[in-house]
């Protein structure tokens, strides 16, 4: 019978918390709209209203394009608690 080797591993448990980043140095939210019919997207800006105006203009030029998806980028932060 050979010797049995047991390797022990220390497992350090760390609790992480994640939250939207609202620190002063956080990136700004940014917004874009995508047309669900043709896939064209608006420019990405920091003002959600820009995307709304883009939809109005896109729908005016393409009256059958009536469904859109807003794509929001919002910064998050992770920290050990
Ligand atoms: Zn479209």
Largest sheet: 2 strands, antiparallel
**Overall pLDDT level:** 91
Protein structure class: alpha+beta
Rg (C-alpha, Å): 24 Å
Number of discrete helical segments: 1
Hetero groups in this structure are:
zinc ion
Beta-strand percent range: 25-35%
Helix content: 10-25%
Low-pLDDT regions = none
Question: What multimeric state do the chains show?
Answer: single chain
Shape: elongated
Q: What is the strand arrangement across the widest sheet?
A: 1-4
The first-to-last residue Cα distance is 47 Å
Task: Explain how this protein is built.
With 81 residues, the protein is α+β, with helices and mostly antiparallel strands. Helices cover 17% and strands 27% of the residues. The chain has one helix spanning 48-61, and strands at 16-20, 30-35, 68-73, 76-80. The longest helix has 14 residues, at 48-61. The mean pLDDT is 91. Zinc ion binds next to loops.
């Amino acid at each position: 019978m050979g010797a049995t080797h047991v390797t022990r591993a220390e497992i350090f448990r760390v609790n992480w918390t994640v939250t939207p980043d609202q620190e002063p140095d956080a990136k700004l939210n940014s917004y874009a709209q995508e047309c669900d019919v043709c896939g064209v997207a608006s420019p990405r800006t920091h003002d959600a209203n820009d995307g709304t105006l883009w939809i109005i203009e896109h729908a005016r030029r393409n009256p059958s394009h009536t469904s859109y998806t807003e794509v929001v980028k919002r910064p998050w932060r992770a920290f050990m608690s």
